[in-house]
Amino acid sequence: MKNIFIIIILTFCPLVSLLAQDKYEVFRKEMSLIEKQENEYRKVIWGENDFSQDYKDSIYKKHQVLVKEKVEFAKNAIRENRDDERFLKVLDIYVRNFLSLDEFETELKSFSPKVQKMENCQRYFEFIKYARINVPGKPCIDFEMKGHNGETIKFSDVYKKHKLVLVDFWASWCGACRATIPSIKKMYADYHEKGVEVVSVSLDDNKKAWEKAFEEEKIPWIDGSNLLGWKDPVVLWYAIRGIPHKVLVDQNGIIVASGFHQLGSLEYQINKYLNSHKD
């Protein structure tokens, strides 16, 4: 009888694992179908085509409905699989952008204690901690990196010498980052004499690629990298989820603003600060 019991346990454990795996695989397959439909909608809405604007508008409405359904589908899958670490990824990819930091933290704490102790989950908790201090009015975190000449650049040594410093997190492989460089150059030309500096921090891990991009872009401001890629501690300290990522810091190391995704928003913040801090 004892041997039969052991056999049942040994048979049952892989079965439980398989069932858990099946739930995740089923989710992935069903989500892929939703995303396939979403991509079809995107081709109509934003692709190069001859569709009428009325038709595009009608598809846009369908796209918005589908996006909501996709998020709800992901949320339901997460609720039903709180003991499966892989659904942390589902939360990150499909739901996180629709949540506040508090809501995101609540979602993480809804996972089982076993999952919460895992490294992936702990990294999310760390991100939340740093995201809460990377807001306007809070002191920035000082950091060091190597310049192109191999010398150490300490961020605090830079911001203490200027009224404002724009920190631009970028990488050679980031097309969106490099696309913003011309606009930063224009801002730099307009405001550098007024006490505004730029410090770009590369998240490259390949020195040749970093050096090549620096030369191609003809970057005129301070640029450095520890060549650690996404493993650089500064990624966590500044709660960076993606690049380009920009932060404006004043002479005292206080965060003034961040983001600047809208055209002219950076110049607006610089003017606002300089006008309110005239000598």
From TrEMBL:
SUPFAM superfamilies named in the record: Thioredoxin-like
Places the protein is found: Cell envelope
Gene Ontology CC annotations of this record: cell envelope
Main location: other
Biological process (GO), any one: cytochrome complex assembly
Keyword match Transmembrane: no
Pfam families for this protein: AhpC-TSA
GO molecular function: antioxidant activity; isomerase activity; oxidoreductase activity
Domain Thioredoxin as annotated: residue spans: 134-275
Keywords from the named record: Cytochrome c-type biogenesis, Disulfide bond, Isomerase, Redox-active center
Stored PROSITE patterns: THIOREDOXIN_1, THIOREDOXIN_2
UniProt xrefs under InterPro entries: AhpC/TSA (IPR000866), Thioredoxin-like_sf (IPR036249), Thioredoxin_CS (IPR017937), Thioredoxin_domain (IPR013766), Thioredoxin_ResA/DsbE_sf (IPR050553)
CDD domains, alphabetized: TlpA_like_family
Protein name listed in UniProt: Thiol-disulfide isomerase/thioredoxin
